[in-house]
Amino acid sequence: MPHIIREVELPITDEQDRGKLVSIETDSAIPFNIKRVSYIWNVPTGRIRGGCANTIEQEFFICIRGRCSIKVSPDGGPLNKIIMNNPHRGIFIDTLVWYELTDFSPDAIVLCFSSTNYFPDNKISNREEFKKLK
Length: 134
Description:
This protein is mainly beta. It has one domain (5-118, 126-133): Jelly Rolls, CATH 2.60.120.10. The protein is 5% helix and 46% strand. It has one helix and twelve strands. It has one helix at residues 127-133, and strands at residues 5-9, 12-15, 19-22, 36-41, 49-54, 59-65, 68-73, 80-84, 89-93, 98-102, 109-114, 123-124. The strands form three sheets. A five-stranded antiparallel beta sheet has the order 1-9-6-11-4, with no helix packed on it. β7 (68-73) and β8 form a beta hairpin. The radius of gyration is 15 Å and the shape is globular.
């Protein structure tokens, strides 16, 4: 079974006089039941967040402010870079996909939805070990 990376366009409601609204629903946007929500901000220049592959956890990321990049590899090969700079576009990361969040703008805020509670033992944090699995 291929390990999936998918960009998801989220529905946006633009009410001219009241602002914009994005609704995020499981099944239609996020293909898992949400167990944990976290967010990343104030990342120093040049730092990487993630740098791992999850063995049982699926994740969904949205850069709700500013911009950053997510570099992904489902097969241990070269990393493909996706720019995240749109608060109504998310990135779904399946299990056993290597990812690195990078290139954070000073004002970046990334919202993270997870299919599990936090279990550090379910992460592969060494890219060479990840490549051996593929």
